[in-house]
Write a structure and sequence with these properties.
The protein is built from 2 helices and no strands. The longest helix has about 45 residues. The chain is rod-shaped and about 70 Å long. The two termini are about 25 Å apart. The model has no long low-confidence stretch (mean pLDDT about 85).
Length: about 80
């Protein structure tokens, strides 16, 4: 259970860090259309990388939440069967 909690808080910290850095430093970066002027490729690649990291952290947060719920249900089921 401790590992799932660490995984949950770690992914939550990474998720918030990437969200903040995307919103603060890369608010003007958007997908390039053919009719628009090309943007700096470094900024575009950095924003894309941070978006990928944000999505992976959100997925890890979901997996850790499900794992914690399953472990909690198993523990409560074992405790309730021992009490009977």
């Amino acid at each position: 259970m401790r590992t799932a909690v660490r995984f949950l808080f770690g992914s939550l910290a990474v998720l918030f860090t990437t969200m903040l850095s995307l919103r603060i430093f890369f608010t003007d970066v958007k997908p390039i259309a053919w009719s628009e002027v090309a943007q700096s490729s470094i900024r575009l690649e950095a924003a894309f990388f941070l978006l990928i990291v944000e999505n992976i952290a959100a997925f890890c947060f979901a997996v850790a939440s499900i794992a914690m719920f399953v472990l909690w249900v198993r523990r409560n089921r074992i405790v309730s069967s021992e009490c009977e």
